From TrEMBL:
Species of the source: Corynebacterium aquatimens
Protein name stated in the entry: Secreted protein
Keywords for this protein: Membrane, Signal, Transmembrane, Transmembrane helix
Region annotated Disordered, chain positions: 437-468, 619-639
Nucleotidyltransferase in keyword set: no
Keyword Signal listed: yes
Length: 881
């Protein structure tokens, strides 16, 4: 009988594991943010990405081996043919190369498979025959096809029983190992009927587990930052690249994903696959593609949100704007969207957070409306675009876990009670804020100290601002099972009032995440086994993920119950298995995993389980006894491991500043029945920009992290530039810096200007010395793209003494503010001077006035005499006649 052997860990890795196990940090969440984004090779975070003790020296000799083709499964005893690529990146010819196949002990669990990927080469003790290679010249690559027997004694690797086995190809030079390629091989029962019957007879009858699989559709949309809303039509779409067009074009990644999903759910075994799979759609993606169908432009920048009045000479000096070109993907967008609508019709569909934004980072901003846009709007957008119902009250965090801060805001995903689908998010905003605009001040409000808008505040955001009311219908969030401690065999836990976490197997999905062209390091993976996943090829890692899924399903099954013996009742049910691939997965991975799900259900090792059944803690045919629900304390939520993908404090602060200022700007504006655009609709695209900036996509791969962080920085900077321009559009313009008045009742005039497309309802707040009071009109309403003159009076402290002819200047600083006195505009500095009039001055004025009166009298007398002279002459002539 085959005796199972276990891998021994490399000493350095074992020491690291011992430290991890003995550390108290595993009792609760330990992931924390860094002040600024750090490159993956920075010593402060390098070990969070990859354990430096694992596979030392591999990939550093200039000669490498890469698996480019291999079967996912092999019948026991058959010959496995693989194709590898040997690449020489040095400037010298390399000779003496050989490839040796090795096999390690059978993997009894998914954890075993992860250990085998980091084990020493010597732990792969079943060694096949070495294939010698011809010399490889400098810069050359050589494709090698290798037949590897799996039967004993034939120069290959011995796989005597069905199961999953770690396979290693060792590339050596003159007998010294220089690189390896590793994957998990699934060995199926022998192809010969007699042998298969013998193998079947040796297996105890099992009750298969239910399996369900998310099928994500997501991509970065690259909308140029700074967009603001328009009505009744949406603003023109500007994209900074054609990446979405390339992905949805025939043969592109998104096009291939839809084809794979459609073939699986509508082809052979379609009914079972349809039940087991659920599309997980990014609402930002389908919203952008729908806009692309109406035409779009590719540009570096968009037209300014506020049109400025410029002089002719300013236009001469202005640098030329970036080039703008019409988008190429209009027809492909129409075709892809129609294909997706057809594939999704009557199927299970769930919405991802908007733009795959990190809900944990959004929660840290403390902004309620940003959190609501992240998880509340999406299902309604997907329903509108795909024209099919969407599973509601479900959140799928891209990080695979939620923090206590995020858990407080999950109640906003109560889609069953939301008004967004019927009235829009602006209705929710108005219900909460309309009363605020009615509470204007009777007069100007005096403030102390330097005033900052929310765009400049640097205090740490208060995450409690995202707290949602308890949902009326249960909200469910999908998280890795190791991020909620002490659940036992249950997959359910209460993380808030009427908010339930539903877990998926962490080790399996950490393996699935490490697939594709850009393997991901997920924050819930055990950092002891993290390594540079790119050391193994994408093909090898895809096959490994498929084997891990088979292992998970096998381990979830339970012995079948004989109804004649036990009456058909069982106290134990198989644990269902969920596959939750990363949102931005490769089509090759999707093909392999989808085929694997189809195969294991076709062979009876698993049965389809709908997403609805997986999410519900109720009895069912695949889950006869609902598991008890544990209540998780807030301090226990989150990953027990370090997470290098967490957004930095600087990034979160910038997003929080902008989100809060957007709220202030929205509250400043007033809806107008004569204008189709609403105030929330105008600022909505700015909020969605922030969600794109906090997207976790490409942030969890060390090769793409820095580019993702740069994209976040660029988007946040673009949003800040737009908000700065919008702030300048609402301003106070004094006629001069110094006001000279003759009395305390003399009016002070100032112009309020509004360059926004909606009226502005504002108040004036001011700073000044003790005793100074500014009297301003209440309820200032500045018309859309217009201005108004404001008349004020000031009660100022007396500064003149005795017969001084003029007092000193009184300096005031004025701001336009929201109805609740939050500064919204840049400050305006003015000085007020009250000119006193002495007795001598009064005498001079009287003398001048007297002289003026005498002069007027003389003038009038002369004019009267001139009029009378002709009349007298005429009378004398008449008397003579």
């Amino acid at each position: 009988m085959h005796r199972r052997r276990f891998f021994r860990l490399p000493a350095a890795v074992a020491a690291a594991a011992l430290v991890a196990v003995s550390s108290p940090l595993i009792d609760g969440p330990i992931s924390s943010a860094v002040p600024v984004p750090l490159a993956p090779n920075d010593p402060a975070v390098a070990q969070q990405w990859a354990n430096p003790a694992i596979r030392q020296g591999e990939g550093q000799h200039g000669v490498s081996i890469e698996l480019i083709d291999a079967p996912v499964t092999v019948p026991a005893g058959d010959v496995m043919t693989v194709t590898v690529l040997v690449r020489n990146t040095t400037d010298q010819t390399v000779d003496g190369l050989g490839i040796t196949p090795r096999r390690g002990p059978a993997s009894g669990s998914v954890a075993d498979a992860r250990v085998s990927a980091v084990a020493d080469i010597g732990e792969y003790v079943d060694i096949g025959k070495t294939a010698q290679l011809a010399d490889v010249g400098p810069g050359e690559s050589r494709e090698v096809e290798m037949p590897i027997p799996t039967a004993a004694g034939k120069g290959g690797i011995d796989t005597p029983w069905p199961g999953n086995y770690p396979v290693l190809l060792e590339l050596s030079r003159d007998g010294a190992a220089i690189d390896t390629e590793r994957w998990q091989l699934t060995v199926t029962p022998p192809a010969e009927p007699a042998q298969q019957a013998e193998a079947d007879a040796m297996r105890a009858p099992m009750q298969p587990a239910g399996v369900t699989m998310l099928f994500p559709l997501h991509a970065r949309t690259d909308v140029v930052p700074g967009e603001t809303g328009e009505a009744p039509n949406r603003p023109p779409l500007f994209l900074s690249s054609e990446s979405v067009a390339d992905a949805i074009a025939p043969g592109g990644r998104l096009d291939a994903l839809v084809d794979i999903y459609a073939d699986a759910t509508h082809g052979e075994s379609g009914e079972a696959m349809s039940a087991a799979m659920c599309l997980a759609v990014d609402p930002a993606l389908v919203d952008t593609v729908e806009r692309m169908t109406r035409g779009y432009s590719v540009a570096d920048a968009r037209p300014p949100a506020v049109k400025e009045q410029k002089r002719l000479r300013d236009s001469w000096l202005k640098p030329k704007e970036g080039k703008t070109a019409p988008g190429k993907g209009v027809e492909d967008a129409r075709a892809w969207l129609a294909k997706l609508q057809e594939a999704a019709k009557d199927e299970c569909v769930v919405a991802l957070p908007w733009a795959n934004t990190d809900v944990n980072a959004v929660a840290r901003t403390g902004n309620q409306w940003l959190m609501r846009e992240a998880i509340e709007r999406g299902p309604f957008t997907v329903e509108r675009v795909l024209e099919t119902p969407v599973v509601r009250n479900v959140v799928v965090p891209g990080a695979g876990y939620v923090t206590a801060d995020a858990a407080r805001g999950l109640g906003w995903a109560d889609h069953a009670s939301s008004v967004v689908g019927t009235y829009g998010m602006h209705a929710a905003w108005e219900a909460q804020h309309s009363a605020d605009n009615a509470q204007a001040n009777d007069t100007g409000t005096k403030v102390e100290g330097d005033q900052e808008t929310n765009l400049e505040r640097t205090d740490t955001p208060d995450a409690s601002g995202v707290t949602a009311p308890a949902p009326r219908e249960t909200v469910r969030v999908l998280v890795a099972d190791n991020t909620l401690p002490q659940l036992g065999s249950s997959r359910f836990a209460q993380v808030g009032e009427n908010v339930e976490a539903v877990t998926f197997p962490a080790t399996l999905n950490a393996t699935v995440a490490a697939t594709g062209d850009h393997p991901r390091t997920v924050g819930y993976s055990d950092e002891t086994w993290r390594y540079r996943y790119g050391l193994d090829s994408a093909v090898a890692r895809d096959i490994t993920a498929a084997a891990a899924l088979r292992t998970a399903v096998d381990n979830a099954a339970v012995p079948a119950v004989d109804p004649e013996v036990y009456g058909g009742e069982s106290s134990q049910a198989p644990s269902p298995v969920m596959v939750a691939p990363p949102a931005h997965w490769s089509s090759s991975t999707a093909e392999v995993l989808t085929s694997t799900v189809k195969d294991i259900m076709g062979t009876g090792k698993a049965v389809p389980m709908t997403m609805g059944d997986y999410l519900l803690n109720t009895p069912g045919p695949l889950d006869p006894a609902p598991a008890p629900t544990s209540e998780v304390p807030p301090e226990s939520m989150g990953t027990p491991y370090s997470d290098p993908t967490v957004f930095s404090d600087t990034e979160v602060l910038s997003a929080s500043q902008q989100a809060n200022y957007i709220d202030d700007l929205t509250q400043l504006m007033l809806n107008d029945r004569g204008i189709a655009l609403t105030r929330y609709g105008f600022t909505l695209p700015l909020r969605l920009d922030l969600l794109r900036a906090l997207s976790i996509t490409e942030r969890n791969n060390p090769d793409t992290y820095s580019d993702a962080a740069a994209a976040t920085r660029t988007r946040l900077n673009g949003g800040r530039d737009t908000l700065t321009a919008l702030r300048s559009a609402v301003s106070l313009i004094p006629p001069g810096n110094v006001y000279t008045r003759t009395s305390a009742s003399s009016p002070l005039l100032i112009v309020a200007e509004n360059g926004l497309p909606l009226p502005v309802g504002a108040s004036i707040v001011y700073r000044g010395p003790a005793g100074a009071k500014l009297n301003t009109p209440p309820n200032l309403t500045i018309p859309a793209r217009g201005s108004m003159t404001i008349q004020m009076t000031a009660d100022l402290p007396e500064t003149g003494e005795g017969d001084n002819t003029e007092g000193e200047n009184t300096d005031l600083q004025l701001y336009l503010a929201t109805p609740n006195n939050k500064p919204i505009s840049q400050p305006v500095d003015i000085s007020v001077r009250t000119v006193g009039i002495s007795v001598a001055t009064w005498l001079l004025v009287a003398a001048v006035a007297g002289a003026f009166i005498v002069a007027v009298g003389v003038t009038l007398k002369r004019r009267r005499g001139a009029r009378l002279a002709p009349s007298a002459a005429q009378t004398q002539n008449q008397e003579k006649n």
